[in-house]
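Fresh eyes needed here. Kindly weigh in on this sequence plus structure tokens:
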Amino acid sequence: MINNDNLRKGLIVSLSLVVLVGGGYALMNYLGGLKKPQEQRKPVAAKIFVQTRKVSPAEVQTQIVTYGRVESAKPVDVVAEVSGRLLAGSIPLQVGQKVRAGQLLFSINKQEALLSLQAQKSNFIRDIALMLPDLKIDYNESFEAWQSYFQNLSVEKPLPEPPQAKNNKEKTFIAAKGINSSYYNIKSQEAQLEKYAVAAPFDAIISEVYMQAGSSANPGAKVVRLLRSDELELRVPIEVSDVNWIKLGTTVAVSSEDRQKEWQGKIVRISEIVNPATQSLDAFVAITNNKESIYDGMYLRAKMQGAKVEEAIEIPRRALFNENQVYIVWQDSVLKNQTVQIHKLNPETAVISGLAPNSDLVIEPLINAFDNMRVSKIEAQNPEKKAQGTTSAVQSAQ
């Protein structure tokens, strides 16, 4: 038989559990109903700021900035014009040696040439002596002039010019004696003898040495190269697209790379041949002042004034997009793109025209921008007003 006490205890426990669970659930629903529903926040559109500048068309002075190396305006290779053994001059032939105009660079042993010249002069003096008796008989009026000429002749001195014939008959007589041809042959050798001593043609620096004293030189052999130190040029590359902006005589501001030293110059030549290494044209700038502190081979900066553009503005190059378009802010809040005319592109700026005066030009690159986008302006003249924590690039609202 089933124990009644045990059955009664089981029913009591089961009912207690049901009441406890049901009461807890009812209490939870009651408390949940007391809590107010959470309000849904509306998404806030990000405020977009763009940096702008007022458009004020005016005359723009273009500039071209480039870099190049200093070169001597007149490098000269000094050659031996005659053959013989090279002799030392008044200065050592060494790279970097300074020379003054007129200083003896080197000479060539001329002993053999000198003896040959003296032998020809002796023959010439002999021919004059043999001619004098005939002159006294047939051309007595010219005898004294020729006799005086004969007495002044010397193998050690340059040959003087002979007397002029007084008539055609005397001229024929002198020519038949071979006097004129002998005279000019001797003068030619005298001129050749001057080539055995070579002096510096101008103040210069020796940049290359090809031969030293003791070497045997042949006609046309290079001995030294001279760089003229008082005439220096800066050779700079000019983009083909920029060459029309400059002209001969254009003033150039030349400076060292660190801008610590400055010089003045002007364009003296513009090459019409494209440099295959740089694909540009070379312009040559003559440096006109304080050349003592400039040396051949220096790398210098050149800033030259180009042509002027009327009714234009110069803007940051990064403000351009699609090659020839910019953004303006219309009615203080709407973004509009505008097509402009580009006159000149510089490394960091561009000279353009085609915008209405007082337009608000966006002067920075924009990301994800489009026509009619709502933006807020920040005047470029007062960048400190830009709100902290905003971005200058346009981004999609999150």
